[in-house]
Amino acid sequence: MQTIALNTKSRPSTVLCGAGAAKQLDTILDGKDVFVVTDENVYGLYKDFIAENFGGAPVCVLPAGERHKNRRSLFTILDKMLQARLRRNSTLVAFGGGVVGDMGGLAASLYMRGIHAVQVPTTLLAQVDSSVGGKTAIDHRGVKNVIGTFYQPEYVVCDPLFLRTLPQRELKCGLGEIIKTGALDAKILDKLERNAERFFDFSFLEEITADCVRFKAGVVEKDECERSGLRKCLNMGHTTGHALELFYKRRSHGEYVLIGMLLESYIAEKFDICAHDYAEELRALIGKVLKRVPRFENIAEAAGLALYDKKNQGENEVSLILPAKRGEFAELRLTDEDYIGSVEEIAGGLA
Amino acid sequence: MQTIALNTKSRPSTVLCGAGAAKQLDTILDGKDVFVVTDENVYGLYKDFIAENFGGAPVCVLPAGERHKNRRSLFTILDKMLQARLRRNSTLVAFGGGVVGDMGGLAASLYMRGIHAVQVPTTLLAQVDSSVGGKTAIDHRGVKNVIGTFYQPEYVVCDPLFLRTLPQRELKCGLGEIIKTGALDAKILDKLERNAERFFDFSFLEEITADCVRFKAGVVEKDECERSGLRKCLNMGHTTGHALELFYKRRSHGEYVLIGMLLESYIAEKFDICAHDYAEELRALIGKVLKRVPRFENIAEAAGLALYDKKNQGENEVSLILPAKRGEFAELRLTDEDYIGSVEEIAGGLA
């Protein structure tokens, strides 16, 4: 198990990563007034684990799925926290995937203007990405993550133990963010290329998760609230990915990130941000996880949703974080016309 | 006009205090994408001011009053922000009293995980207290301020211009917090005692407002999120005040703070926290504003609500911030029995 410190100006956060991390919950929560947030799927699988590790704490079980990441679920949590008479020194444990983590984190940041939060991510995606860095959110009126806070959890506990109950599709989802991190950090990229046949091997996932968390912690420490521009790099593949996710809804977030990265790698080439060979290298890695690219109907309309993304500050401009060379990225701003036209052309060529 | 810096770890805030402050809005908002939150009362009085100073910006007009400081109003603001297609670099201006400031600040802190906020408090209470320091909130299920954030506004603009349209009762409300500050800071107390006949004089209010803001800024800089205990001092009179406010609802927040301070000054004496003469001195000041203490029915039940206050961490204990001597305060923790019994006895003696 590795201990990774994430020290922002707002409050310190500690990430415990690797086998045995979950065993530390005992110590972390010792003597604390605990409240658990989870969802129906996770509760079904880990009812006993919850009873043993959060002994007697009230448990708020939410309906599962991104479509429940909304105002109603947020207030379900807050109401249960009030019923449980939580105080400012109580601790909320978000035990589940990204949706549980985002909403649990938001509720913890809002209740009495902020109580302690501990994230126990149970999916690969949440372990490598969403549980670390303090972003919390709900979706609202069709806009992803438009209501939320930056609020660092006291601890994040990433144990590969929980990955064993994940369907293959969920592993792919996390691999999307792992490959994205590789496109930002040369050492992680090397490791991914050397281990391209071990992507679904738990011992490899345990190791690469810690690498990705350490990389993300470094970025978040320098730009917690996405103000300087650095943290934006973590959005590589997400502009196009989010737009397609919003429009088509069928696949998981991680798969849309992979598809976004794939399409954007061609955009990077087209606008001379990235050389052909390096783009091909990244696409080869993406191909290890994303076996085939679906055919998208009305992709121009879908891509148009990128204009509504909160990262796009201008009215008719889309900002893209693109791979430039190993370990380097660049931001490209395109007019809506250029962006939508490019996505349409590239997707057409792949179909 | 005075410029008071409030530099917390999270983000810097600047308070402009005094005649002419409102004229600075032009410069502050120059070139910004602005969104205004206000309420029906303020809008009725300042429609022209809003049109001139926030030229063309969308205005969200909320129903007036503390009973609208709730989830519904919060989402009214957030929905209008989405409709106005605000971006992360947009600026929300909260133009009104404490309720508008608390909810506008909360919406600004949540929309896209935080956009710029400017507070333009139009009541004396909001100018001396609630607009400064970054506390935002809504009430929920009968609990005051139970959902909120700590989020510093970029600017707070306190102009005595707005005080001229306030009813006398609203001035009293602000004077409650001013006298509270006097009980925490010896210099402010001296000034209040020297000017006890000028409490309703605008030039005095302008001067003392800046003093109170400077005092509060110093406290908030040292303990933004009320963790070290220092910021708790600002809650003097509030434990009892809030409980009575919740139970009786009839009077304003500032009046309940004065009543709370009055009752708690006797508690301070009873438990040997404060000498009789100093307590009498404070009560003389309170008496300049609070002409008579109302008779309270069922005060034991009302005082019992203090147990639900978010500042009280224990199950059956009430924390009180009490005056000790000039410029000094002390925290006293009482069992619910001792606290309720004392309030009942003291209020009975005053009636």
Automatic annotation (TrEMBL), chains A, B:
Keywords of this entry: Cobalt, Lyase, Metal-binding, NAD, Nucleotide-binding, Zinc
Domain 3-dehydroquinate synthase C-terminal residue range list: 174-312
Signal peptide: none
A GO MF label: nucleotide binding
GO cellular component annotations of the record: cytoplasm
SUPFAM superfamilies with a match to the protein in the record: Dehydroquinate synthase-like (SSF56796)
Enzyme Commission numbers on file: 4.2.3.4
Pfam family, any one: DHQS_C
GO BP terms, alphabetized: aromatic amino acid family biosynthetic process; chorismate biosynthetic process
Taxonomy, superkingdom: Bacteria
Enzyme's top EC category: lyase
Required cofactor names: Zn(2+); NAD(+); Co(2+)
PANTHER family: 3-DEHYDROQUINATE SYNTHASE
Protein name in the entry: 3-dehydroquinate synthase
